[in-house]
Design goal:
The protein has 203 residues and is an all-alpha fold. It contains 13 helices and no strands.
Length: 203
């Protein structure tokens, strides 16, 4: 038998040979139906079963911290786990990740409910851009960064106003059919989706 000869040449005998032959036999016994099995699993798919279990905050934090550190997942994955209520990601675990600098202040404040600042949403808002591209606000609000931020959060996002040069909510809606199907004409949700998920997913 060719397999036995090869194993002997490699110096594998006795129990080692028996194990190798068993493994080889098992491998060849896999049915052709296994060809449709996925060859690659994402970090999110691999970790999802663990996140669905009742694990304490420290345990969840350690798992997520290591996966983020070794780039097996990104912040979008962490947010998917947290906001999916079938998963178990305690708020305290998210706080620890934020303290380690592993998740953004936007995610952290969405978890804790703390008030946002312009810095937290810099991915979609720049006060200078917002002032220069909204003539109606120049007279009504003036070139006051705090007032412009307040307007953007209270009204601009709902109206679909572009807050900086990088993010266009209309374009984001058009390019992402799954997001459009979920949020429809609720324009404020497109900024939020981008900040929590899209920017980490390369959308």
């Amino acid at each position: 038998m060719k397999t036995t000869k090869i194993l002997k040449r490699l110096g594998i005998t006795g129990v080692g040979m028996a194990m190798a032959l068993t493994i080889a036999g098992s491998a060849f016994s896999i049915s052709a139906g296994a060809a449709d099995l996925k060859k690659f699993y994402t970090g999110e798919e691999l970790m999802a079963p663990a996140m669905a279990k009742r694990t304490d905050a420290n345990g969840v934090y350690r798992q997520l911290r290591l996966a983020l550190k070794y780039e097996q997942i990104n912040e979008a994955t962490v947010n998917h786990f947290y906001f999916d209520k079938t998963m178990n990601v305690p708020a305290d675990a998210m706080k620890m990740l934020y303290n380690d600098g592993l998740i953004s202040s936007y995610t952290y404040k969405c978890v804790t409910g703390e008030a946002l600042t312009a810095t937290d949403i810099a991915g979609v808002f720049d006060p200078t851009y917002y002032f220069n591209h909204n003539a109606d606000l120049q007279a009504a609000v003036g070139n006051d960064a705090t007032a412009l931020f307040t307007h953007f959060v209270k009204y601009g996002m709902k109206e679909g106003r572009q807050g900086n040069a990088a993010f266009n909510p209309s374009s984001y809606k058009t390019k992402n059919a799954d997001v459009a199907a979920a949020y429809g004409d609720d324009l404020a949700q497109y900024y939020k989706h981008y900040l929590l998920f899209g920017r980490y997913e390369g959308r």
